Amino acid sequence: QVQLMDSGGAPVQAGGSLRLSCQVSGGVAGGLATGWFRQAPGKEREGVAVIDTDRATTYADSVKGRFTISRDIGKNIVYLDMNNLEPNDTAIYYCAADPRRRGWFRFRWREWKHWGPGTEVSVSS
User: β-strand 119-124 against 11-13: which pairing, if any?
Assistant: First the structure.
């Protein structure tokens, strides 16, 4: 059974940077579709960045050029590097994984099988 533990969230000022980490256990990160989603207060969960099983990467328009998703295969960790953070980035960030190629469903959070507990990011202006 794949288990995910996300971490790295913190309070930060606008313009700052954070690195989120997702430790994968019970599976090989390199063989899974892995992604980051976020949920702001009062809003639905939304996709942020995905590395699919074919290693294709996709980003939400709102984070393109600022966020980077990557994987350390040796450590079985998925990262989300976030730069130039904005108050609108404030949310609980969740790591997700799935053994199936996500393709069209990459940002449909209900279609993902495994989830981390979430880590909170708070960006102040």
Answer: parallel
